[in-house]
Amino acid sequence: MIFASDNWAGAHPAINERLMKESTRFAAAYGTSELDQAIEKKFNKVFEREVAVFFVGTGTAANSLALASVARPGGIAFCHSEAHVIEDECGAPIYFSNASRLMPVAGPNGKMLPKNLKAAIDRFPPGSIHQGQPMLVTMTQATEQGTIYDLDEISAISEIAKGAGVPLHMDGARFANALTALDTTPAEMTWKRGVDILSFGATKNGCWCAEAIVYMDPKMAEDLPFIRKRSAQLFSKTRFMAAQFDAYFQNDLWLELAAHANAMANRLRDGLSASNSARLAWPTQSNELFVVLDKQSAKAARDAGASFYDWPVPHDMQQPVGENEQLIRLVTSFATEESDVDSFLRICGRA
Amino acid sequence: MIFASDNWAGAHPAINERLMKESTRFAAAYGTSELDQAIEKKFNKVFEREVAVFFVGTGTAANSLALASVARPGGIAFCHSEAHVIEDECGAPIYFSNASRLMPVAGPNGKMLPKNLKAAIDRFPPGSIHQGQPMLVTMTQATEQGTIYDLDEISAISEIAKGAGVPLHMDGARFANALTALDTTPAEMTWKRGVDILSFGATKNGCWCAEAIVYMDPKMAEDLPFIRKRSAQLFSKTRFMAAQFDAYFQNDLWLELAAHANAMANRLRDGLSASNSARLAWPTQSNELFVVLDKQSAKAARDAGASFYDWPVPHDMQQPVGENEQLIRLVTSFATEESDVDSFLRICGRA
Amino acid sequence: MIFASDNWAGAHPAINERLMKESTRFAAAYGTSELDQAIEKKFNKVFEREVAVFFVGTGTAANSLALASVARPGGIAFCHSEAHVIEDECGAPIYFSNASRLMPVAGPNGKMLPKNLKAAIDRFPPGSIHQGQPMLVTMTQATEQGTIYDLDEISAISEIAKGAGVPLHMDGARFANALTALDTTPAEMTWKRGVDILSFGATKNGCWCAEAIVYMDPKMAEDLPFIRKRSAQLFSKTRFMAAQFDAYFQNDLWLELAAHANAMANRLRDGLSASNSARLAWPTQSNELFVVLDKQSAKAARDAGASFYDWPVPHDMQQPVGENEQLIRLVTSFATEESDVDSFLRICGRA
Amino acid sequence: MIFASDNWAGAHPAINERLMKESTRFAAAYGTSELDQAIEKKFNKVFEREVAVFFVGTGTAANSLALASVARPGGIAFCHSEAHVIEDECGAPIYFSNASRLMPVAGPNGKMLPKNLKAAIDRFPPGSIHQGQPMLVTMTQATEQGTIYDLDEISAISEIAKGAGVPLHMDGARFANALTALDTTPAEMTWKRGVDILSFGATKNGCWCAEAIVYMDPKMAEDLPFIRKRSAQLFSKTRFMAAQFDAYFQNDLWLELAAHANAMANRLRDGLSASNSARLAWPTQSNELFVVLDKQSAKAARDAGASFYDWPVPHDMQQPVGENEQLIRLVTSFATEESDVDSFLRICGRA
């Protein structure tokens, strides 16, 4: 009953198998092998256009280098006030983008409210020398709150970014989960709606270490090879990342794994909704659930071996958390088993 | 006949097997799992003292974060003029150490000459506000030229560093190869001779991605957890690195693999020395050979599928390279097969 | 009728005279002259203890280098949400402190509320590797809203900083104005209340370019000479700054000038309070006034040559600004003449 | 007999007078006053084209911000191996240009030899991801060795820079001295010969603090306002710098002052050349002289109150420095008096 995080899971057997196969041969290093190049091309197919792809080691690296590539002096990046880039990356995006500023934008359920974003950007008209200049809007899909921007919401955000003359970045640490939940295509969820740069995460969804930065317009990425090397993110045996992506895309494995994780989350949600001991903190749509659980159930579950995190109560939460309750986060993954979900539900139902 | 680089090799089966085993289970992320901690303890045993260990993704990251951890304003790090940190990492060590300066120190065969190092440091006495202040000496073991500092040479370097009040870092991308060649212990080759920080590389020696920064005095590393996260080098499934190190140390696999690579280099050396078509550019002692080969042999070898790099002729090379010759680099690895060495020698002998 | 800012004023005749005298002689450069050292000693007397003093060219430099000197990886500095460091310095404090994060702390009238500061810091307990680590609290005295922390309020802030193990910095761009308004001593307003580092501004109060960073404990400043040079803030003819400070402290000129500026602000305040066309937006105590003025008066004053800035209405302002009103800022200085104040009041009274 | 440095001099009376006049009035801050703008226009006239001008506080700032404005990831700037930017600015140019690398280029008499520059740049062809990419060539005029690039030599350097697709910067800390010595025009010595960015120094030539960055093509400077503010170099009362430049250009004062300094250097040179106790270390052409003096004379001069610096003997110096000799540097300025020169010569002649 591991619901602590999707990065507590291991790696999917198909990923492993592909890695094994790759490990027995020699190939050119530093991203120049045929496999590296073949997988970069595979991204073109996935995104239905020529994109520029750069493998990096962590999601934080993907986000940080994306920001680095659009850095301006006095630059300001706009993100949701609870975004991973501002709250959970120890300042890495600031560090790599030459000391830019991350400006939090409020909005319910982990999503920037367009009018708040607009107002935040409007504080920095051209020539605001003492205040700085907008350089990027970054959104998270799926969000840290387990919610998803629908396609029109993405368009609304991107229109504001375009209006301000800055690119739009999407932190897709859980890109596959969002994609599956929306039942749409990578192209539709990104460049067709105005996304310029994507942090494409695969580690949480069955790989052991596979992240990529995807530029919808390769011209934007001309300096990225230098940025990546200068940032210590050019791996010598990078083809082992390429190999993971190879298996990841094979027969739509990635979508299948994300669909499983989402289904497990739905099963949890349905079970908990039907229970007397729990209620959803807010509607979630991907593989993260935020649940107000009675403390007795939480204790019982933990005693039975379940792992999950307590979560700080947002100050704008609508229904208050009672004294005998606590807010918890439950995350499912490709490796979550139905039986674990059912055990957890049984304990909560019983307590 | 792949002699291009040791990072063209894949991964050793024992490493793979251990990774497979790890992939089927859940475990805590970001370096907090029991396995991570157990492997960190294994380093204590390897180094015969309590050390602080941090896994990172690339050798450049290990070097760069080592420098970052000792950064001073106006800081200057001293390295050999051909060192990887100054010549091959696109400025990453400068970047991560808050814009320090890398000062090249000359010396034959890839090794800093102690008197040159001393003179270089002496240019920056305390209070050299306009020039900057020494912050680190960094040496490479084995060097980029395939040579090795013997233990007394390490002591000579460390005494100068100590005298200047700065720590000594060792870039050990090929640590195991040097260790094996010197037939000494990790403790003897590092802290017993005054090394304070070590970039401990395993990727080139049979892992697919396993690098560590080792602090001989854990107190020096107090800020490293933040530096690593801020530098985008804290991997979520870092236990997959730990697993590689687990297999790497098991039954001294790492020493065995390095010994094999060195033996293959020796076999190449002996064969080429006996040949009329080649001579050693300078004496090398690990798994890298620099050879002056007649162009006909070089072409024949490449036509037969051999891969290796041409190398720029150092300006201080003693015996000139003739018109019909070229300087090449040959690198062996854990995966180099004796038959490939012999094929290569046969071609060179024949041409 | 220049009320736009105190940095629109020129320089006081006594400052000029001293500069003239200095200009005719030779002296050692880069802060090593006897005058430089004598003035540094004068600061000891002013602060009643041995302090370390560093002249720099701008208030932004003073603040930024102060932050640089306490930078930690993943470091977080806490400031009021409207502080100059976060809102008006184009990210310089972030830039010079190696990409730290500035965390806004709310509080009425430009002052951090201690409980808000405490809560903000408490979000980052030791070991918050993903979030970062507190490195500094910085307060502004007088504040950007023209208010002043009284001595007990300074103590309350410093106790929280001490409790978190971080130093306390004071942005004293208008230090003299605050000091005079509180009728206290520099020692009392700083180190006796727990301030560790001070940006000591003199430019706004009669100098043309004289700013200093003052460390109450010189040991904290050991790297500052390198930081200052590396930051391009070591002036060759720095003795011309020293000369300004010489005249500034002579016969308490600085206190006299600040008292004058404050008196002019009081005169404005009293006059406007008595008027039907204006009211104070909030109580201010130094040389900055924030006034809600009827638009007719504002226009009449501008038509008559008055200069002042419109000010954005804070979202937490208690009495709303009416449709026929606007919020303006009025700043007085050493150079403000009583007759200008009276002319302005007359116009506002008449309109 | 102050020959230590031209920045030991004070300020010229005409500069002072202009500052006094400026000090009595109010004007807009942060470079927006009419005077600031008028002086910026004056630079257009001086350079015979529309240029972009930015006042900063130090020569190090001018150089560093120039580099910052052309920074690339993994960027490399090429300079003479003895240049101020690499040897005397505590790494500031590296720091402000986002951790670029400064690559020393050798050449006699403080001047980069074109073929050496070409060879240095050629080491970094496009796509040298592991090594970095050229971003700038920077030359010093007059050089640190007191020599001057003639116009054809400037063209030779600029052609190489253009060929590599990188801009050419000139560190003109002693621009006026070089200009006067060459008897040419600012336009001719800069953009007509391919210089793109100029650090225009006036502090050493009679101002007390006046430095400017001049972009020959204003489009290159679009981000400079943000860079300058972010670098803490936007002075509030910047019009006091403008005022200095106003007087500096008035009636060609600047050329007159530089001509005087150069004449004093020539007088020193002629006198010392005729003496038995001294010889020129190498030919110099501006206001810096490098002289091999017998130790007795040096002591006698110092005993008589002369101040000057001993200088390290360059390793490629042609005539060795004898045991009874020492290499010294003598610098003249606008404030050097003929009588001091003659006293110095008398002492040397006598000893």
Task: Describe the protein.
The structure is a homotetramer of 351-residue chains. Chain A is α/β, with parallel strands linked by helices. Chain A folds into two domains: 241 residues, Aspartate Aminotransferase, domain 2; 97 residues, Aspartate Aminotransferase, domain 1. Chain A is 40% helix and 17% strand. In chain A, the strands form two sheets. A seven-stranded mixed sheet of chain A has the order 1-7-6-5-4-2-3, with helices on both faces. In chain A, β8 and β9 form a beta hairpin. Chains in contact: A-B, A-C, A-D, B-C, B-D, C-D. At the C-D interface, α1, α3, α5 and α10 of C face α1, α3, α5 and α10 of D.
Question: Tally the helices of chain A: what do you get?
Answer: 14
* SS-based class of chain A: alpha/beta
Main sheet strand line-up of chain A: 1-7-6-5-4-2-3
CATH architectural grouping of the largest domain in chain A: 3-Layer(aba) Sandwich
The residue ranges of chain A in which pLDDT falls below 50 over 5 or more consecutive positions are none
Largest sheet geometry of chain A? 7 strands, mixed
Q: Percent range for helical residues of chain A?
A: 25-40%
Q: Give the distance, in angstroms, between the N- and C-terminal Cα atoms of chain A.
A: 16 Å
Q: What fraction of the residues of chain A are assigned to beta strands by DSSP? A: 15-25%
